Structures are given as C-alpha cells and as structure tokens.
Amino acid sequence: MACQKLGSRADVFRKQGQQWYCTSGLPSDITVAVGEQSFHLHKFPLLSKSGLLERHIREKIDKGEDSSVIDLSDIPGGAKAFELAAKFCYGVKFEMTASNVVHLRCAADYLEMTEEMSEGNLIAQTENFLTQTVLRSWKDSVKALQTCDDVLDIAERLQIVKRCVDSIATRSCSDPDLFGWPVAQYGGPMQSPGGSLLWNGISTGARPRNSSPDWWYDDVSCLSLPLYKKLISAMEYRGISQEIIVGSLNHYAKRRLPGLNRRKSISDVSNCLSMTSLTSIPSEDDQKYLLEEIDRLLPFQRGVTSCKLLFGLLRTAIFLKASPSCLSNLERRIGMQLDKASLEDLLIPNISDSVETLYDVDCVQRIVDHFLAMDQETGGASPGLGEDGQILASPSLMPITMVAKLIDGYLAEVAPDENLKLPKFRSLAAAIPDYARPIDDGLYRAIDIYLKTRRSCAG
C-alpha cells in the first residue's frame, strides 16, 4: 500500500488512558475533547493551521472565558483522525496511506485547514495524495473507498466516493477480458517472442498476468452494500457485460449469505444461520435486506444468471422470509430458463408454517407456470404434424421438451410423499402440454410410484 511521509519532528504525542499529551516541554494551554478522548495541546500550532480552531480560540479570548476546552466530538474520523491532524499541525512525522487519507481529508475539511491558513496545509496535502497516488492504484482506490463508510456524507460531498468509484470502474473496464476483447487488438501490452511484456517495443522483462474476468471480484467484495452498488452501477454504465456483473454479484452474495448455493436441509441452513454471531456474519434481517438488494441488481435476462445461483438465492430467500416481490422475482427468473435447471435444483425444502409436503411443490408449480407463460409470450413453437399424424421434432421445442422431462423426474421424486395430495400431483403433471412429451415413460413412472406408495400405505 502506497504511503506518503509527512512532518519532520520526532513524535511528541503520548497517550495515558484516554488522555493525550504533547511532551514538548511547554505546558498545555488548550484541551480538545473528541468523544471520550482528550488532547492536551497548545494554541499556536493549532490556530495557525485550522480555521475552525482559530475561530473557537478567538471567541473564547474575546468572551474572556476561562475554559480552555473545545469539544470536537463530531469531527469526521473521530479521535484517530484528529490525532493525525494535530500531528500535522505540530510537524510531527506520520504516514499518510490509503487507509487513513479519506478520514484525514474529511477531518481537514471539517477543521478548515486551507491554503489561506497556511501554505501546503492538510487539505492540499491529502488532495494531492489522493489524486496523484491513491486514485492511480487499483488496490489503494479500493482501500480508500472501503474507509468511506464511516464518513459517507462528507466523503460524498467532497466527491471522494465518486472519484474512488470512477477510478476502480475505469481500471476494471480497461481489462479487455471484461469485454471479451483481444488484448493486442485494442492497444494492450504486446509480448516479445520470449514472452515478456513490451512497452513501446522494448522488453520490460515482466511476465504477462494470467488474468481472468473475475480477478477483481474478491477485492470489491469487501465493500459495504451502498458502496458496492455505486461501483456496480458505474461499471454497468461503462459497458461491462452483464455476465461479468452477475459473477461479481454471485461472489459478493456468497461472502454474506451463509449456505448460498449449497444443498442443505432446513436444519442445516438454520444451524448455519444461527452461527452468525460467532462469525461476524450479518444478522438475518441484514441478510434479508442484502438478498433483496441483490435481486434488484440482477438483470432480468434469460441465461445471464445461472440456475445454480438463482435457486440458491431462492432457497435462502424462503428461509429468511424475504419480501413477496423478491420471491416472485426469483421464481420468474428461474421460470425464464427452467430448461437449464437440474432435478436437484427443484428439490426445494418446504418450510411453510403448515408443512404439508417435504418439498415445496407449490413453488415448483409457480416456476413452471412462469416458464409456460414466457414460452407463450415469446411465440413458443407449436408442434407440427407429419403425414402420418406424428408430431414432428423441432429445435424450437427443445426447451419445453427438456422441462417436461425435468418435471416428470420431479414428480417421480416427490411421489412417495404421503402428504402430497392428488390434485397437486395432477395439476403439476397436467401443466406440461402433451406435445412436450414425445415419450410418456417418465410420467407413467411417476404415476406408478405415486399409486404404489398409497397402496402400500392402505395395506
């Protein structure tokens, strides 16, 4: 992580409990309170750099107040930011990094540490470091953006959030892999016959990076949801493909939603979620909010989001009791590409208060209904008939034929459930048009299992 050294004096600040002292040899004549911490300092170094402190000190002098205490508890970045700002006022050595520059920049604005007060003041120093160093580095930009959460309002007013987001989005978008562009064709680094990177035709000796479109997923997954959403919006604006965006959303969700995309029983999911307090995972309410936001960010486009992710989100949404609109959206998304699902995907545990069946047959029925409605809206092919009256095979029938096979397999899987009532079994079986089943063997097998189970129970 890049850093810039400021100041030249040895550190004269010492902390005892919640009290800070400047051991410069002169007695303190002013105390700055920041929350529970107090800084016992000297007026001149502070008023020579800070317009805010100069005003407070002058007011006390003009009013003849004996109190030398100034309360700055609302300073952005808190006591740590003020400590660094105070060290700057005293010319004490410290390092400015991507981890502290945002808080320091916001604190400098709050303290009015402008060029009018002193040349090369803290606002100018932090702005220069942000612009010339942090925003020119991917990792430093991500780190700086991550620290904006605690000072979000002022960081947005100072355009720090926007500049960090723009820097990250620009750098991610400059990776040709995110667009599927060949590197050399669009001005990317060329390689010598020996494999090293070339710069203006001269070998740099560096080896090319084996990049993949997901190289940035883990870095940005550390961001809070509000900041992550801003970044995703900026990337979409710059034209990154929907598949890459969905990949990032998937990675982000996995880090915050326990059990996502894992095949778990209800008790397993419950146990996983109950451990959140031990692993610093968000509360169930926070997870529900996150999941609903992820749903809003996902594109409504067939084939862009994998069935594995959608079913994982749906299972989690059901358990977390997400909003009806979120559940409906996920079912619709799955319905749009049900032909790409697997039987295992459809085995969604039933966790309703009045549990009737082991698996959520009603949910699968709604998903099938969405698929059939979409198939009809998009002009799903009607089967043609040959001279002998036989249905003619057609590539356009492939999706609904695959769904028919999938549902027949599902019916066979849920048929042994004694609580599955005949109307539900029949409704799901009848939802698939006859022409979608070139062979009825799968359906007959499911019916046979259903009937045998009930005969054995009756016996």
TrEMBL record:
UniProt xrefs under Pfam families: BTB, NPH3
Residues covered by the BTB domain: 28-98
NPH3 domain location: 214-459
Keywords: Ubl conjugation pathway
Signal peptide as annotated in the record: none
Keyword Ligase: no
Keyword Ion transport: no
InterPro entries, alphabetized: BTB/POZ_dom (IPR000210), NPH3/RPT2-like (IPR043454), NPH3_dom (IPR027356), SKP1/BTB/POZ_sf (IPR011333)
Highest taxon in the source lineage: Eukaryota
Pathway(s) served: Protein modification; protein ubiquitination
Transmembrane segments: none
Matches recorded under Gene3D superfamilies: Potassium Channel Kv1.1, Chain A
PROSITE patterns: BTB, NPH3
Family, as annotated: Belongs to the NPH3 family.
Protein's name in the database: Phototropic-responsive NPH3 family protein
Taxonomic lineage from the root: Eukaryota, Viridiplantae, Streptophyta, Embryophyta, Tracheophyta
